[in-house]
Design goal:
about 150 residues, mainly alpha, 6 helices, elongated
């Protein structure tokens, strides 16, 4: 699992103009959904009629690329701790030492591509080491230098 995509966010927009029409991933809806598709020709027509649509399209495409890079940054890490630390750093609020996890621990483990027991064990170890404090879905970073050793 690469990521959860929540409406109205688009996906695979960078692949619209490629010569290969095969998407680079399998998409599965976990709730009732409506899928809108666009052809290359219809998109060109819209873009040529309104520059704001071109601007919006480029923003959406850029966001897709940024999300892919972010996910690969996490999944390229080898250990559970490294993946969890990258997740914390990418999801923390600017100038804050707190992260609110949007997932259950099982969903987070799936997102990080690790087992739930391995993630739970790592969170407990980091808590005992005084690096983080977890209360429900809120994680407080207590030791920033120790956390940064893993990224």
């Amino acid at each position: 699992m690469i990521e959860y995509i929540i409406a109205p966010r688009a996906f695979a927009t960078p692949h619209l103009f490629g010569s290969n029409n095969t998407l680079p991933a399998t998409f599965t809806a976990i709730e009732d959904s409506t899928l809108f598709t666009a052809t290359k020709e219809s998109t060109f027509k819209l873009i040529s009629q309104d520059p704001q649509i071109l601007h919006n399209f480029l923003c959406v495409s850029g966001n897709c690329t940024a999300c892919t890079v972010s996910r690969l940054k996490t999944l390229s890490r080898k250990t559970v701790r490294e993946r969890f630390v990258v997740y914390l750093q990418e999801n923390r609020t600017a100038n804050s030492n707190c992260v609110t996890i949007a997932h259950t621990q099982s969903e987070l483990a799936e997102y990080l591509n690790v087992t739930r027991p391995a993630l739970s064990k790592e969170i407990n170890k980091m808590t005992k080491e005084g690096i983080i404090l977890m209360t429900g879905k809120k994680i407080e970073i207590l030791n920033e230098p120790a956390l940064n050793e893993y990224i």
